Amino acid sequence: MPYQNLAEAWEADQFAGLRDRLKAIRDDARSGGEDYRILMPDSEKPYNRLSSWSSWLAQYGRFIAGEPPGAAKDADRIRQHVLEQYIEPAREEGASHVDVLVRDVNTALNLNEAWPNICQALAGKIFQDLAQVSAPERIGADQSSATVFRFGLDEPMASQNERPFTLFDSAGNPYQPVKNFNRSNGVSAYRIKPKGAGNKADEAIETKDMVDVARAMLVDGLASRVKAIAGGTVNYLTYGGEKLVRYQLDADIAKKIGVPASGSVQEPTKQVENTMAIAQQDERPTATSLILYGPPGTGKTFSTAAEAVKLCGEPVPEDRDELMAAYQGLLAAGRIEFVTFHQSMAYEEFVEGRQPMTGADDGEDTSSGGFRLETVPGIFRRIARRAEVSRGTVSAETKLSLEGRRVFKMSIGAKYLPEDAPLFEEAIEKNCAIFGFYEFDLSDPRFGTREAIHAAAEARRKEDPEAFVSQPASMMTNLFRNSLKVGDVLIVTKGNLLVRAIGIVEGDYEFSPIEGRAGDYAHRRAVNWLWVDRDGIEASDIAKVGLVQRTIYEIDKSSLNVPALERYMNSQQNEGPSEPEPFVLIIDEINRANISKVFGELITLLEPDKRLGQPNQLKVRLPYSGDEFGVPSNLHIVGTMNTADRSIALLDTALRRRFTFREIMPNPAVLKEAAARTGIDLPTLLTIFNERIEYLYDRDHQIGHAYFTGCDTRADVDQVMRHKVIPLLAEYFFEDWGKIAAVLGDLDTHDGPIEGGFLNRSVLKAPPGLDNGEAMQRFRWDVRDDGFDYARLLGS
């Protein structure tokens, strides 16, 4: 190569030429050539070393590009191990493909249950470029120890000409990426070639809209990294042949094209795969654990709404009504949960516990008059489960909704019958819904009504007295065969309390007997399973009312939490690595509960480095269910604490290392508008109050601005003072009315009656026998009956 050192090679083309040359030498060696002896004169098996050199160049390129050191350590080990131990040996043997079992990689590298990390490393574009393979076929379970990746070794890599779009300049020439290119260089418009168009300039679409350009770059991909688009400036970098795209977008542009405001995407090869996936696949989300603390009325609870919306990755509107609408939408979708702690709060309510259940579940005797103890997950475990199974969001163009669809609940195999367990797995594997009851073929068009189905069942009963027939069975069979339409949604339950799959019907009725089971469970409908979780999530997450035991029935949409159901329908649609959706748990008044009693072992699991997917991830076995449990990294926790209720020092030891504490104090400045409406200088009033409270008591018992923000008239301020502020001061100072009067500006140094702006003082007469001049002087304080006078307080 013509370079004196690696610095020159990087400056020239970011090592692309060097890596191409190493690949050419490797290909030459496979065909019997000896070009490799330029580098290794005595080697007889150069393939692995040549692959290693290519990998080292890629890693060094990432270092030069400024990626954080050590961030991809495990991922690089995984890729290198699979390349050297699987890909290269299989190529040397002339194999057409090679299978990689995730469990074997985890064991060989002595990793700690790093199934998701291994899957992400092997499914990504970085490994495909490194090993010169196409995207693998995924076999078996998703992101588990049993996942198998099958890499084809005789498939040619897609050429750069197969990109699904090209960017043209204003002259119609294909755009060549350069550094620091912007509109001031003379480009007045961009031309974007749509998918399927040819390479001629006249087939491109001209646009001056940066939104269109951004969508083309981000959604369709580009052989470069977009460093910035906001303001019309586009900077391009390429390195190591890895063709990654990183971006930072203006918030409005990001909202219009339906992508996060910042992130990374990958250049597609043979097809557009997961275009919004994180390019650096080993960057793990950092969990936020935050407590907002301060005196009452400072807006802590309201601040949690803005904080939660921001942590969910959504824009935070400045308008209060718009903010609360965004918050309520995320709350309805299950992305945010809100809980208030109290003195009776327990581990069983927060994490999991046993609760008595009456009635029946699938397979149980409905006539039983007793009850059973059922392990029920608490609010924390439910939202943690939602966060754990999320794979991210989909684009606005591909997002599914319930509009125009009916929703049906369906059971596939009874929960308590072991012989039925394979039915659900077969349904998922074969992308179909499986229905039981009658064992005869219903494909004939004459079975288009419930009456015809029931008549056929009755006719079979006459031939065989043991043949099954019932009106409910005929009704549900008719639902499955005739009422269920293509496009309808199926919710598959696990018992009556859990949901384990959601799908969309894609085909008409079919009769397909299972081998060895005659006509039993032979009725099928093709289904696209959108979401699957074999352990199941609480049915209450998506249904407002309890689901019942019937095998199949239509659910009225008014009985469903539609936003939550739609989120589940879209949450597993990203194939391959992707950034999961953020979830937020808000704990109001976190200091009112016994923290060690409520959190239990979660105190340890909440630490950021011990979350799932982190270097020091921990799991514990829960006492009631016996399940292994860890806290996902995409679950954020925001708490509030009223410092007037309990000292923060009582929480420091337990929570200081796990939580970030942010103080929220009274802000008189926000009362300027209320002051203009009421004619009272509320900012000054609040400042005086709090200075005096801090002098007489402490800074944790100040009065928050929220008490006055809703005041529109002087009468409103009087009501707040009479019914909220003065009673609060009485509580603070334990009915010491002298101190209360001092805060209100009504205390004088003399011992006579006082007519103050808020309080009146009268002198109490000593009882007979104590009026000889030796009795202590005592006073009665009364709150004024008429309107308050603020002049003395504000003028002092």
Automatic annotation (TrEMBL):
Gene3D superfamilies (alphabetical): P-loop containing nucleotide triphosphate hydrolases
Gene Ontology MF: a single term: ATP hydrolysis activity
Domain of life: Bacteria
Residues of the AAA+ ATPase domain: 286-669
Name recorded for this polypeptide: 5-methylcytosine-specific restriction enzyme B
Taxonomic source organism: Roseovarius litoreus
